[in-house]
Each structure stands twice: as C-alpha cells, then as structure tokens.
Amino acid sequence: MQEVKSLIQEYVKVHGKARNNLLPLLQEIVQHENYLSEDALLEVAESLEIPSSEVYGTASFYTYLDTVPRGKYIIRLCRNISCMMQSQAEVLSTISLLLKIKVGETTTDRKFTLLQANCLGWCHKSPAMMINNEVFTELTPQKAVQIIKEYKEK
Amino acid sequence: MEKSLINLTINNIPVSVEDGSTILDAAHRINMHIPTLCYHPDLRVAGNCRVCVVELSGQKELVTACSTAVTEGMVVSTNSPKVRTARKTIVELLLSEHNADCTKCYRNGNCELQWLASEYRIGDHVYHDLVKEEEKLPDTSSSSIVKDDSKCVRCQRCVRTCTDMQGVGTFSVVSKGKKQKVSTFFGKSLKDVFCIDCGQCTSRCPTAALTEKPLYEEVWDALAEPQKHVVISATPSVRVAIGQELGFEYNKHSDAKIVAALKLLGFDTVVDSGYFNDIYIMELCTEFMLRMKQDNEEKNKKVLPFITSCSQGWVSFVRTLFPENEPLLSTCKSPGLIYGALIKTYYADKKALDSKDIITVSVTPCTAAKNETANGSSQGAAEVDYALTTRELVRMIRQSGIDIERLEPDVYDTLMSMHSGASVLTEVSGGTTEAVIRTLSELVTGNELSPEWLKINSLRGENGIKETTIKFTEVRAGWEFLKDKEIRFAVVNGSGNAAKFFNDLKENEHECHFVEVMVCHGGCIGGGGQPIPVSNELIKARSSVLYALDEVASVKKAHENVALNTVYREFLSKAEHQETQKILHY
Amino acid sequence: MELQSQKRIELIFSDYTSSKYKTLERTLERTPDDIISELMDSGLKGRGNVGFPTGMKWKFARREVSDTKYVICNANESETGTFKDREILERVPRKVLSGMAVCGYCIGAKKGIIYLRHEYGYMKEHILKELGIFHEHVRQFNFDFTIELFMGSGSYVSGEESALIESMEGYRAEPCNKPPFPVSRGLYGCPTVVNNVETFATAQVIFRIGAEEFLKLGTAYSAGSKLFSISGDTRNPGIHELELGTTIEDVVNEFGDKNIKSVQVGGASGYCIPQRLFAETVIGFEGLTTGGSMIFFNNTRSMYKLLHEYLRFFAEESCGLCTPCRVGTQQLLLGIEAVKKGEKPVTYIEVLKKLALNMKTSAKCGLGQSVANPFISILENFKEEILY
Hints:
Strand content of chain A: 5-15%
Order of helices and strands of chain A: HHHHEHHEEEH
CATH superfamily of the largest domain in chain A: Glutaredoxin
Number of strands of chain C: 9
Strand content of chain C: 5-15%
CATH topology of the largest domain in chain A: Glutaredoxin
CATH class of the largest domain in chain C: Alpha Beta
Strand order of the largest sheet of chain A: 2-1-3-4
CATH architecture of the largest domain in chain A: 3-Layer(aba) Sandwich
Mean pLDDT of chain A: 96
Order of helices and strands of chain C: HHHEHHEHEHEHHEEHEEEHHHHHH
Number of helices of chain C: 16
Largest sheet of chain C: 5 strands, mixed
CATH class of the largest domain in chain A: Alpha Beta
Structural class of chain C: alpha/beta
Distance between the termini of chain C: 43 Å
Oligomer: heterotrimer
C-alpha cells in the first residue's frame, strides 16, 4: 500500500491536482497493481480533492479499471460475434479447464484471472485475447494452452 | 445588458421568453404542464430521465424540454402521438426497474413516479421485472437516512444535491449499463461512509429511494404506555411548515392550536422550543465572549474564529473535511439536546417525576437530529429519546384525523413556555448571529441595544456567504479590549458554501471572529426533514413568517426572557449542577 | 457514376513510405478558408459512423471566437467488427497526424489529442515515437501545434464525441445535453473538433490528390472511398478499401464465402442486410450509416444469436444515464429470450419493436438511438429465427 501511496503522491507532484488527471492516474495504479483497492482510491480522493464516492463512481464506469482484486495476468478473451464464429467458446473452455477457474475468477496462486472482453479489434484474426496489454490472435485451443504455459513459467 | 426575447409556439400557443430560457421555462410561462422527473429547480439540469421529451417540428428525435434552449420560431408539441408513446414507454420502463409495491411504501401518496403512472394510466406491467431480490433489502445502517435501491429511478437528484449543493459527495453513480446504480464508495452502507445526515437528499428524492428513518411508530408506542410521561417540543420551522401538508395557512394563532393537536395525540406535556433556543443563545454568546477574551490574553494560541456547532451535520462535516477547525467549534450543545437534558433533570425535579419515566420527543425540520438521540447524557440516559421530522409529525396528525383549525387553542407547559423573538430567528440562516449580537451588545456595553441591530439586513437573504461588522464605542469594565474593535461576523448559508469560505479564510488570513454555519440552505427552516416538495420560494416564504414573528414579539432578546432567570438561578448556576457544563456543553 | 467490379483502391494506405510531411507543409501554405472550401467541395463525410460533413464541422469550429481550441482524434474504435482505425494508426499514422495538424491550422487550435482506446495500448510506444517525429517536423516549418496521447480505459460509449470529452476531463463517459455541440463548447468548454481516425487520414489524402480526384469515386451523396473491416464468413478477412456506392452484392461476390445469407453493416449499431436485398443496397450514407464494419453470415449462422449478442453488448456498454437505453436494452434482451423460450407469447415481439422505435426517438445519444437498427432489421428479415 505504501508503494501505491508514493506512486500517487509522486504523480500529483508532477502533474497537479486537476480533475483531468484522474483517469491517467487510475491507469497508472492499475498498471502497477492490476486493480484499484479501497485504500488506493481513498488516497486518490484525498490527493485530488475529489469526494471518494466520485472517484469510485468514475473508476467503476470503465471496464479496464477493475475495482476488485485481479491476478498478475488478466486474460481477456474477446466474446463478440466474429470471434464467436471462430470457435471462441472452445478456446474459452480450454483455458478455463487448464487454469481450473470460471470466467470472472482468479487462480488460487493469484497468478491468472479469466475474463471476457468486448470487441478487441482483431476480427479478421479471431479468436483474439489480451493478457494484460499483450494481444494474441488466431487462437486455437492448443495455441492458447501454449501461451498460458509460457506465462506460467514467467 | 437586457436579454432579447425569443418567440416560439408550444402546442400552437405563442409564448415569448428571454434568450437562454429552456422549453420547460417557456411552458411554465403559459402554465402548460410538461411532466419531469430528474429536473429539480434547485439543481443543475441533467436531461437523463427523458420524461420531459417533446417534439420539435421537423426533427425526428425528441428533445428534453428541461435542457433544450428555445430558438426563434421554434414549434414545440408536448402532446403529439410520438411524444405520448415515448412518455408512456419511459414510465413503463421506469416501473419495470422499480419495486412498485406502493401499499407498503413510505412515499405512497406523495411519490412522483406514482403520479406519472397514474396520470398516464399505466395498467399491467408490460415488461420484465428487473428489480433484484437483494436490492429489496434497504440500507438502514444510518440513524437518520434509509436508502432503498429497489425504489431508485436513477434521476441522480441525490447525487447533485449531495455533491453540488451540499459539498459532501456521499453518493455517486457507479458502473454502467445494466449494473449502473446510485451508490456510495464501494457500495458501503451509509454508516460506513462520509454522510452528514442533513437529509437534503431525502427531500429531493422523487420516490422512497431515500427517506428519513421513521420513528413515529415508536412514538405512538410510547404514547400508549400509561406510566410514561411523554414530553414534546416542536420548533418554529416545524410549526410554520406543517400547514403545507395539512391544508392550512400558518398564522399567529396557529401555535396554540398546534399545542392542542399535540395534546390530543397524547403527549403529556408540550414545551416551547423557543425557551431552549434562548438558553442556547445565552450560552453561545457568553462562550463567544470568553473566547474573545482568551484571544486577547493568549496571543500565541489560535482560538478564533468562534464557529457555531448547533447544526449537527456541520459537526460531521468539520470532523471529516476541516478537522483543523474542530477546536474552534463551540462546545455548546444544540437547543434540541439542551431541551432533552433539562426535561430529564430540571423539569423532572420540578414535577416530581422519575427521569426514567420521561420520554422526550423533539420534532425538528432536521434529519441529522436523529443522530443526537444516540448520545448519552451525564445521567446515563439519552437526552432526547426520539427525534421526529416535520414530515413524521404531519403523518401522526393525519393518522389521528385531527382538523387543526377547528381545535380550541391550548397553552404550552407553564414552566418552559416563554421565548424571545431572537429564539425564533435561530431557525433562519443568519438568525443565530443576529440573536447573539442582540445579547452580546447589551452584555458588553451595558446599554440598550442599538435599534439598527434589531434587523441586520446583510445577514438576511439567500446569499451563500453573508457578513456584518459590529463596533462597540462604549464597553463595560473588563471588556476594554473590545472598545472600537471591528468584530466581524460571517454566516455560511448551506454546507456547499463552507469549503469556499474556510479555504478563503485560510488563504487570505482574514480576521473573522464569529462564524455561523448551517448545512441546510436557508437555515433550519430549509431543513432536510421539511415537507416535500421543497423549493427556494417556500423557504423564502417561511423565513418571512419567522422574521414577522420576531417583529411582533414583545421580548426581542434572549437574555430578557425572564423565564430563563428561574432556571439559571434555581438550577443551572448551582454548584452541583456544574454538571451545567454537561447539560449545556460537551 | 459507373461502378466497376472491385478495382483496388489504395488511397489510404498508399504513397506512404517516404512520408516526410511534405503534403502537410504544402497545405499549411494555403489559407484556412481555401482548405475548408476544398474539404467541403470534396463531400467528405465523417468516417466514424455518424457521417457529418467534415468541412462543415471544421467551418463551424473556425467561426467560434476563442483563444483556445482543440482537435481530438477519436481512436476509441470499439464498434464490433471494426478494426480499420487500428490498421491506419499502425501503418499510416502520419496521415492522421497531418490531418489533425491541418484541422488545427484551419480552426485556430494549437493542441491536438489522440484518444486511443485501452485495448490498443500495445501500440502506445509506436504512437509516441511517431508523435516525436511529427513534432520535429512541424518545429522545422514553424507550425505551433502539439499532439498528445490520451489512453481510454475501456468504454464503447466513449466513442460518442461528448462522452469522449467527458472522459478526457476525468469523468464518467456520459454523453452531454446538446446543443451546445463540441464545435462550440467542447473540451474544457472550448471549441473542439472531434473526428475519427479515418476522417483525418482521408482529409489528408484529399489535400494531397485534390477534391476533384476524390470525387471521381463514390456517389453524389457518398463521395470517395472508405475502409471496410471485413470478417465473418469470408475468404479474405481484413481491411479493404472500397468505393462508396458499391452494392452489397458486389462486396459479397468479391469477399464472401458461399451461401451468404446476411451481412451486418456497421457493427452492433448498424443494419443487417438479408440476401434478397444485396443487389439494391449500396454502402454509403444514402441509407446505411456505416462505420466500416461488414460481417458476413452464411446460412449455418443463427441470426437469433447475432441479435442476442448485440443486445447483450448494448446492455453492458450503455452508459446507463438515460431511461430508454439503460432499461430498454435490458428489456429487449430479456424479451427476445423469453419469446424464444416460449415464456412470452409471440405477440410480445411487437411490444419490443415499439420499444425499440421509442428508444430511437427518446434516447439521449446515438448508442440508445441505434439499438433499433439491428433490432428491427434482424427481426424483420429473419422473423422465424428470432421467434421460434
């Protein structure tokens, strides 16, 4: 928590307290911790002088600003129509079985979270997924397994 | 520069309004009713609910009347087939995400959604019921406010009220899409988040999503217990306002009838709240004088400005947002707590009653007062057992079937029934300050109050921050340091103005000696527990009634209330009641 | 306009490898009025789905009197099936930056901002590098215009221009009451032009080849060419630049697999065109608004699943502010499920149709207003699949 607190204070020192700093600051915290904790948001509220309810209300609007704890690697599998048409469901169930978690859950070692996302913009190379900020396309169940195994090794 | 006039037609009726007006403004001008929901005259325009959509000639999409500015030659239709079907659909959609069990609802009969449904003849619920079971469990964790998400129409009036108007920010809109709702920080219960219990949200909520925590059933129960002696005090703001709901116009004869009504409800004793307001003014004034003395003698210590604390919501506000100002707050308890404490000690003594058998009920325009009942007094029992809002008293009177205007007048209990004009003023923003100045002047100078200080106009009115400066040219012995000193009084009207005032004060290092803060705009007369609907006009009108009551009062100053002499002489000044400090101060 | 079979059009992705901002330099020597005039003559319409005439937008912003103005590039591409902006930014970012710079020059803005959706974060370094190069060049020809990058955080509705501005200012991406429009009061209350990535790139193309050349393509109402993100049952998925005014039939013939029964044009907020209407439907602003997504469905695909997926998408991505959209999207989704399962009678679909049409007239922004597009077009053309 101290790390995040310093991160926030540093950020405000450099960029100031104006409201338009809110989203970039929240993004930085997520980059660091993969989610926004209560403590982090309270610190942001105090530093930017915004009511804490508003900070939470703004953060909770955005899909990639998670306010619930996530694992180190967040797997987001695109669920929209073009990916659906290319056997996304198979890839999803393969990953789910491999990691032994359902969509929305995190592995017990806190390493992986499995989520679904709306159109990632790789429809011509579907199915597609993101793991944190990295993109993987033209997935097959085997390819997905391979990618996750590589992450497991990290 | 004068604004130009814009000419338009609404349903073929011509109307002219100032440039910058909305279609809704124009409709009001010709008394054409357009239904609204998220719109509220006290708050900035939202344009979210879409209930007020109207059709503009030549445009496919409908526009919201509340947010669309008029343009020259605009042709508006508020009742075309397109508008009618859209409006009906929107009301049906709202009902589908609403727990529409009206018979069990606190706002049954005074609910804006219910009105819309009845006006547009909504019959069978067409759509799927979207209310989740877990939403039907209201948040009752706070002692003042109840939040029921299953009744929320997402108008966001509460968000705008709490953040923009009150400067607090308890609520926010969270998530998006089907998960969107009005909530708090991480959806926590009200008792676990910053909330000053002012209840301004409850008086602007169109439904029962936010209400005060009702306690009138408990009061009915207390009234039914034969061995209990139930005492009630209703403040002037309450008495002036209940006419709105019960259909009578408050005038100088109304108080006596209201006393009669309260006795009919079953209360054993009805006391005049003004009596306790006067004690409060006395204590506040003398505390202020001592603080000024302290400031003069202890040059290194910051003891000014002296800040009032009778507004319970204000104390919460200071503790969270301006904790550095907490030591400057007055230690004086609010008139409500003074009432409770004196009834359970002095009054009990005088009437040979066991304080354990006394139940004190106070009716105020305030929802935060419900918190005060949680405090313990030195005697170990709560000073005030039940705090009711104006709305709850109205409900009790209605339930009893009483027609107030037909009652024979009755009188307050003789022991505690005198009040000064100043005591009435404490319920209006700026009035506490005026009341204090009246007493302060005579205590410091020893002379008759200067007539110009009987009506300090700069402390009256709607402004968010009001000020006046007083100078005493003659002073009594011991108060020489006040001679010719410019004593600055400031009034913060509504907690939404507090941040600006106190930040300015800190930055500019203004000299300010006395600050009165009321979290509710207009003062207690605009409290969060007053009848719904609430409006600036109503607050202004009711304030005028209070000012008029002061004008006709024969005794204008708190220290001239002779009834106070008795309680001070016989009780409050006695050594063993040094305890006075605990009865009257924290 | 004589339509030919799909000739290769390469206006957007061509002539790039040697881009040293020469066209930009040349364009900045013209007067703003001259540039805007050409843009208006070219008939260029916004490439982001709304299709507002670009020249007119720049003209309105130019007219506003303000010391500070902004140019915003809407790179929040989140419409399902759309990925053209991503490729433009990857392959020819300098065309976008040039377009933004010319816009800034014309309206009197010194600051440009690219609002890039979170999901395209992998190209952040690439964009920042390009911005560095851009700034070097404009410094060389003394043009005061800086462009910043602002990352989105995951919200489809941020593609709506007023919601995008809200997001940039640090708020929930909720659309605002209009008027005023962003060209009058936009970012921080200042006049702002918000245009799509492809719009800026195409504007730049027009400045290079001239309006006359651009007008040789397309129709009277839909000038020029446009990028299309093609996916689904196609043997050639990817970004393809097509002439506006081309019929769906020609597109399907060129790109579709066998037995294409429908094409969804414009993503979730677009229209579903059934096979029987392929020949008479042209891509352009005449009837369909098109953000450039085309998904092909063969006759094994379920149109119910398609509609269901779109309604689920809307119910999730709606900002939730206005009643018709927040509640209507949920009702439409639950409604078609109930009819399919037999929990509601088939006649209930008429109730839903009326609801969708009411959403079109009373919702606060384009998202809520567009839900009726896929709903009505899929329902009317594939009724049996939805009902039974």
